[in-house]
Design brief:
The protein is built from five helices and ten strands. It has 156 residues and is of the alpha+beta class. Bound molecules: coenzyme A.
């Protein structure tokens, strides 16, 4: 699906176009990303041919989808693009006929938890120790160890 607006263009990317640097900012493990990417749809928000942000949708079931990655290039953060990418992902899931959309983030992701809950997601689970079990290096954000995966869900 290609949607052009005055404020950039959303485009479903081909594998050769995947912005790895950006994907690795949302998830520091290439091995983890490679697990979900082959069965995912990668959408980019593009301005003047340049990718400003990316959101990845991965099917969970026939009626449920997970946002497995969302990232905005550093220079363009704090301008509402993350919120727009999130809305685009939710709308895309609706159009696909999904009844549920999920997202997971680290316990230390203050900005992400704010963004997702203010967009309508509710916390539905905690996967304790997820980041310790699945990542070889310790992760920390703003001095807070990233240990648990907070799962959030929105019914569509
Ligand atoms: C998370 C991310 C996608 C947000 O994108 P963004 O374009 O900066 O977000 P927006 O400008 O749309 O802001 C969304 C909300 O988050 C808030 N926010 C942004 N940074 C924040 C921070 N450091 N602390 C608290 N809230 C913050 C904004 O105030 C805004 O809320 P508001 O509309 O109520 O004011 C972006 O920061 C990013 O790419 N981070 C690195 C990758 C990453 O961590 N991805 C998520 C993995 S779970």
């Amino acid at each position: 699906m290609e949607v052009t607006t005055d404020e950039g263009q959303y485009r479903l990317l081909q594998e050769a176009e995947y912005p790895w640097e950006l994907l690795l900012e949302a998830d520091p493990s290439r091995a983890q990303i490679e697990k979900y990417l082959p069965r995912s749809s990668v959408y980019a928000l593009i301005f003047d041919e340049l990718i400003a942000g990316v959101v990845v949708l991965t099917p969970l079931t026939e009626k449920a989808v997970e946002i497995t990655s969302i990232a905005v290039v550093e220079a363009r953060r704090g301008q509402g693009l993350g919120r727009r990418l999130l809305k685009h992902a939710i709308e895309t899931a609706r159009i696909r006929g999904c009844t549920r959309i999920e997202i997971g983030t680290g316990n230390s992701g203050q900005a992400q938890l704010h963004l997702y809950q203010s967009a309508g997601f509710a916390i539905t689970g905690i996967d304790r120790g997820y980041f310790v079990r699945n990542y070889p290096e310790p992760i920390e954000e703003n001095g807070v160890p990233c240990v648990d995966m907070i799962r959030l869900t929105m019914e569509l």
